[in-house]
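Hi support team,

I submitted a single chain yesterday and got back a structure, but I'm not sure I'm reading the token output correctly. Could someone confirm the output below corresponds to the sequence I sent? I've pasted both exactly as they appear in my results page.

Thanks,
R.
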Amino acid sequence: MRAFAAGGTGIPGRTGVPRPGRPEKPEEALAGEFEELRPLLFSIAYRILGSVAEAEDAVQETWLRCAESPTRPDSAKAFLSAVVTRISINVLRSARVRREEYVGPWFPEPLLTDPYQDPERSAELADSVSMAALLLLERLSPLERAVFVLREVFGFGFPEIAAAVGRSEAACRQLAVRARRHMDAGRPRFEADRRERDELAGRFFDALARGDVDALRESLAADVQLVADSGGKAPQWATGFFGAERVTQVIATLVPPFLRIGGVVQPHQVNGQPGAIFRDRAGGVVNTWGLDILDGHIQAIRTVSNPDKLDHVGPVADAFAVLRDTQQAHRHDAH
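Hi R., thanks for writing in. Yes, this is the structure output for that exact sequence:
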């Protein structure tokens, strides 16, 4: 991810590390605190926005505002978290209009690695970044979403949340209750065990590589859905494919010839869940797949092929050309 490239801070003209042999200046200390908190700030912004690029921009804007502030905050964490939250709320409000006009289904930008880790909140962090959870968060108002993320995911106290969103503590508690009610209503009744989930995903991708149609079908729920987010800028799969037989047919038709023309299916965690990155023969990113697994079966396969949402993953392939070559290989096999 661009903002977390090794050896750089992403702050023009600042390394965050004081030069040896001279006292540390206040702005250098502030830059150092910012760099330590950057993973947290990005993780807050991403969960509010569902966009890697917008979250990175929100973090950078947070630094600019912090650097321009004439005073040093008592708590850098509270201050910077509040600033990035306010920025993210404003961006989300304008983004809602664009998403209403979006071509086809809208999914969050795939996140391969969450830069923020906290062993005490690992379960909340992993759950909150999944595609399913982020799509549930889309149902909330921007304020509800921000309050839920700060409270339920990162464990902020209501005084800090109130300062961040510009509402009273009582109002924030009400927002938190409403948000939790909406989220709980949309969650699946049974969560998959992480080890069992990963094992099932492994069997699924092994079957994919072997072209084992029966094993593929067995791994899918009867009402499984395969849905793609192309944004009108990559091949669009109508409104999606539904049911184990139809989804198996689509996968068995497209994936084997894709592999024969040099395509690669690279299993990889996507938004904290089992998934894969599809690459063309040159290594360009065609799309990502994310799997929703519950009750021992794959319930949904969500693919992101909109090139605007993939450039942080790597160089993006020409998905139309890849599909054309894949279909040509399939027709050749049929004859």
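A quick pointer for reading it: The chain is about 50% helix and 10% strand. Let us know if anything else looks off.

Best,
Support desk
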